[in-house]
Amino acid sequence: xxxxxxxxxxxxxxxxxxxEIKLFAELVSEKPGKKSKKSSVSKPSSADKPEKKQKIQKSxxxxxxxxxxxxxxxxxxxxxxxxMKYLHGKRAGEKISSICSHFEKGRKEIKPILEKLLKKSFIxxxxxxxxxxxxxxxxxxxxxxxxxxxxxMILDFIRKNPAxxxxxxxxxxxxxxxxxxxxxxxxxxxxxxxxKNDKEYSAV
Length: 204
Fold this sequence. Notes:
Layout: H1 7-18, H2 37-40, H3 48-75, H4 80-87, E1 94-95, H5 96-103, H6 107-119, E2 123-126, E3 129-132, H7 151-160, E4 164-165, H8 166-172, H9 178-190, E5 194-197, E6 200-203
Antiparallel strand pairs: 1-3, 2-3, 4-6, 5-6
């Protein structure tokens, strides 16, 4: 068995004790040749954080504002004049389902408005279809000119078919709409040639 030479260790120890030799320690956090995962991820600078925070706050404000507007519109009641504006220029009329869909309201809210307008004779209802009786001032109508219907033709039909409704008259005379019939019929009523009983018309 070979003897261990202690001379170099004795010299090293004497050097450390005397201060001639100094030892330095180095901490190694990872193995050589491998990249640190943490070093590949760049942390956002402090200057980027406030800008990102402002964008989030702005986005949140826009969402809250849009939601508040929607809630406000849902709570806002529909005015009778708005319903009349919607019916303005619609020759074929509109059903209550279409009116509710347009204003995004239920029947419980729209039905009383329609009843109020019917009572005041602003609109007329024929088998669930609502028509505007009078054109509203200040609104551009879809009707460029009045469609002329011969009152004599209507009178002849009513004489042959007493107790006829507007719908029946319109279908018989070529699917004429309420707006096309109402003016000549009113003329016949005023002249005393026909009379109105509820929603039916008969010759005098």
